[in-house]
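Q: Protein A?
A:
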Amino acid sequence: MQTKLLSTVALALSMVPAIDGAGAQEIGIAVGSRAPSAVVQTLDGKSVDLGSYVGKTPMLIEFWATWCPKCEELEPALMAAQRKYGARVKFIGVAVSVRQSPARLKAYAAKHKLTHEILFDADGNATDAYEVPATSYVVVVNRKGNVVYTGLGGSQNLEAAIRKAL
């Protein structure tokens, strides 16, 4: 399973430059579907289910990696959106398992001053559940738990995506 996931992520990453990241995509989990449960880990190794957040507050989930240039490109917009909407929207970064470790993620978060919750998808549970096509993939979920936006790439209009969830 993990080998298949790695191959799928690598293939998808090779296609990222060809995808227009300026707007919503019709890839990955379907817009309108219920956000699924998926067990991931905190950076301290504790299990947490993404489903425990669903239906409580709007949320933005970014599937990312420390080595992803599109993720780094998206970072300023993500941080600006969190500053503006952080009191009303839960921001979660789910790091994919490819060439990542909790220690590497902690170091990156400290260096880049990331303040949103960062989780590690060590087993690919969330990547599978959310049908993640590549890193820099964003899913926005409304308070009811429905997916209202998916997007891919370093140039997404996160503010417009978040407004769909409010």
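Q: Protein B?
A:
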Amino acid sequence: MAVLNLRPLAGGRILRGSQPFGLDAAATSGFLTEHGIQAIVDLRSELERSLVPWLVQDGNDKDNDGGGSPAVAVPPAVELIHNPLDPNAIAGSLQSVETAEDLGDLYLGWIRLRPEWVGDALRPVARGKRTLVHCSLGKDRTGVVSAIGLLATGGTEDQVVADYAATTANLPDVLEVMAETWRLSVPSTPAEYFSPDLMILQSPEAAMRHFLARFGQEFGDVRSFLREAGLTGVEVESLRNGA
């Protein structure tokens, strides 16, 4: 299988995608080499990582969750960064998302409570590494980091919205594979948990436009937000201009 919903951003400095579905160690190595990936920012919770782990050979592991999860070996040229955000344990209820505006507000709640989560995700990009950013579906957590990353690297709001909405065409395949993954690992998971009718499993343009409008009202410009998120002035400028 593969990393799904995969596409480059910011001239290829950032890759966004899903988790590595069904990749053995050899396929993982081939994937990382093919795409020239120098850093992986894994936004998943410890449980999610345990269901679909990265299978890589050796190197160093950096774990930002403090949860004591086992170290994952990575090739020396690839930095694996665990930077988790568990949507079930932070602002807002996934079950309460009924409209596109609710979805945008959910995203805003994440970065309001955890601005450093975004800064940590974009730091390897600021340091000049070609970085894969991913969660499980590559839609929500990945979408938020990608949106701010695109703005920080000079992208327009229209480009951010178009990138977010591009996930829509990929969702049927991603949801099918995700449902099978959970069915095998957690058989008690209800089938409707992965229903495409749920707003939380959609990526409408209106959700991102709402998020961006509220982001601007609350945080002003993206550079100010990233400084608040823990990046240095040099790192913020490196995102804008290329390291």
